[in-house]
Design goal:
There is one protein chain. The chain is of the alpha/beta class and 543 residues long. Strand 11, helix 9 and strand 12 (259-262) form a beta-alpha-beta unit. Strands 2-1-12-11 form a four-stranded mixed beta sheet, with helices on both faces. It has a four-stranded parallel beta sheet with strand order 4-3-5-8, sandwiched between helices. A four-stranded antiparallel beta sheet has the order 16-17-19-20. It contains 17 helices and 25 strands. It has three domains: 31-36 and 54-198, Rossmann fold (3-Layer(aba) Sandwich); 266-436, Rossmann fold (3-Layer(aba) Sandwich), CATH 3.40.50.12780; 443-542, ANL, C-terminal domain (GMP Synthetase, Chain A, domain 3). Helix 11 (287-300) packs parallel to helix 12 (319-328).
Length: 543
């Protein structure tokens, strides 16, 4: 029998580090299957997951996941094989993830908005054997797409529809597994649990591989830092195909044993009702979701009294947004977090949330990770100096699925090169200042796109702003802005220049040209696709 693809992936966790993680207890040596079984023993009839019209108990998840693992074995899926799902924020994603942990399969969540081009890259790369998809969703035929890409994914053996018809459905597999249950061996927590593909804001996506121990170590850190208890109730807005939604919907509730409302489609009015009706206490979400809640509170006077924490991350968070929470929602703490698919939560916020400046101006304190900031030659810089952020620790990935992506990804000490620029202060707080590839070099001077964008976001007429480098005949590059205005508002270049000058921005940092747009191209978790904006600007210049 041939080895599963996961057996060929590199493991960049150094043996000495692994031994230290285990000895210290940082790695819990548990899988999601273990947490599921523990929850089943403790309170099987507890309603753990909420959707708009459905409720899911621990028993519902447990029995369905064990049956699905058996059914997949009957289909020929073996330990180490990859299974994929491309689903909305439905609780079936939790069942699939639990089944993967029970059966020792590697889960491959795929962002719902991806189409043929992305699937033709992802499915062959990870050699997925099964994909779970909706029959159709929001007018798009997912089954037809999956059928189209099969020719380019020879390992793909089964298309399974969820909440739909078809030759093979999730419901029929669960029924098969209940009729023909198989005894499952316990999964090794050091083996791969997850392969998730980067969102590709700058180019080809890479397959990020995590083991069980790293994911559950990460979630244990959340529980400690955020002081989560069984009395908390969360809600998840991020897509389950993205790291944030995957962590907080598929894994966190079972590990933390807290109730979770899974939001299928963001609507601020519905989210507000959910918070108040269910008494939700915390969430982790992207910038637009926090903006919407604050705006609704200002319009209606609602204060979301049970909501104690909104951790904001996944994309740049302008300081003004955090400050607005403290002015508007008296019971809610909010701060910026920093993480990535490769190192999910390098920071989890600020331990003293009364320090509003730290919450708004930094990306939080390093927790459960090791971080250094280095110069272009790899030398560690002193506190307060800007350089590339490198990360190592028990929550970091095993590596990328392709060896060529690993070659330059780690330094000699095992630190992952994030590609982010930032500053580490004396209190071990990180402030991300931009991307190495996102600098604008004007007349030999490096300008931070993020600094300019943060200043623009303080203008009352601007809802979103993103800046990129434009070619300049004398200075090499200049600042070009894409702006989304607030509803009913507008802005022109002289007004913007005057505002940014008054805000203290140096002349060379002020956009020399701009474009008003109705929206910005985004990844599923709110990061602006700068490569799309650069292509759009280049096309405009050519024409």
């Amino acid at each position: 029998m041939s080895k599963p693809i996961s057996a060929t992936w590199s493991n960049n966790h150094r043996p000495a580090d692994v031994a230290a993680y285990v000895e210290s207890g940082a790695w819990p040596n548990l899988t999601l299957a273990d947490y599921l079984d523990a929850a089943m023993r403790a309170d099987p009839d507890r309603t753990l997951f909420w959707e708009t019209t459905r409720r899911w108990t621990v028993r519902d998840i447990h029995d369905s996941a064990h049956a699905l693992a058996s059914a997949l074995n009957h289909l020929g899926v073996r330990r180490g094989d990859v299974i994929s799902f491309q689903l909305p924020n439905w609780c079936e994603a939790v069942i699939i993830d639990c089944a993967a942990a029970i059966g020792g399969f590697v889960n491959n969540p795929i962002v719902l908005i991806y189409r043929d081009a992305e699937l033709r890259q992802i499915l062959p790369d990870c050699q997925s054997k099964v994909i779970f998809i909706p029959e159709s969703y929001r007018g798009f035929d997912f089954r037809a797409m999956a059928e189209r890409v099969r020719a380019d994914a020879p390992s793909l053996q089964h298309l399974v529809t969820v909440r739909g018809d078809g030759a093979l459905t999730l419901e029929s597999l669960i029924a098969l597994g209940k009729e023909r249950p198989l005894k499952q061996e316990r999964t090794d927590p050091n083996r791969p649990k997850l392969i998730m593909y980067t969102s590709g804001t700058t180019g080809r996506a890479k397959g990020v591989v995590h083991c069980h121990n790293a994911i559950h170590c990460d979630l244990s850190a959340h529980q400690r830092f955020w002081k989560l208890t069984e009395h908390d109730r969360s809600f998840v807005t991020g897509p389950v195909g993205h790291m944030s939604g995957y962590l907080y919907a598929c894994n966190g509730p079972l590990q933390w044993r807290i109730d979770c409302a899974v939001v299928e489609r963001w609507n601020v009015d519905e989210a507000a009702d959910l918070i108040d009706n269910l008494g939700l206490t915390f969430t982790v979400g992207a910038t637009p979701f926090l903006q919407d809640l604050v705006a609704l509170s200002r319009q209606t006077g609602r204060k979301f009294e049970t909501l104690r924490l909104f951790a904001c991350g996944g994309a740049p968070v302008p300081p003004e947004i955090i400050r607005s929470v403290y002015r508007t929602l008296p019971n809610t703490v909010s701060y910026r977090c920093y993480g990535s698919t490769e190192a999910p939560t390098t920071t989890l916020g600020v331990s003293d949330p009364s320090d509003i400046d730290a919450c708004a101006l930094t990306d939080g304190e390093i927790f459960n990770n090791y971080v250094k900031v280095v110069d272009d030659d790899g030398r560690t810089l002193a506190a307060g100096c800007e350089g590339e952020i490198l990360i190592r620790g028990p929550e970091c990935m095993m590596g990328y699925s392709r060896d060529e992506d690993n070659a330059a990804a780690f330094d000699e000490d095992g630190y992952w090169r994030s590609g982010d620029l930032g500053v580490l202060d004396a209190r071990q707080r990180v402030t991300v200042t931009g991307r190495k590839k996102d600098l604008i070099i004007r007349g030999g001077e490096n300008l931070s796109a993020k600094e300019i964008e943060d200043a623009m976001h303080t203008h009352p007429a601007i809802r979103q702003a993103s800046v990129v480098a434009a070619p300049h005949p004398r200075m090499g590059e200049s600042v070009y802005a894409f702006i989304v205005c607030q509803e009913g508002a507008t802005i022109d270049l002289p007004e913007l220049s005057a505002f940014l000058t008054k805000a203290g921005l140096a002349k060379q940092k002020i956009p020399e040209a701009y474009e008003l747009v109705t929206d910005l191209p985004m990844t599923p978790f709110g990061k602006v696709k700068k490569n799309v904006l650069r292509d759009r600007l280049a096309e405009k210049i050519r024409s």
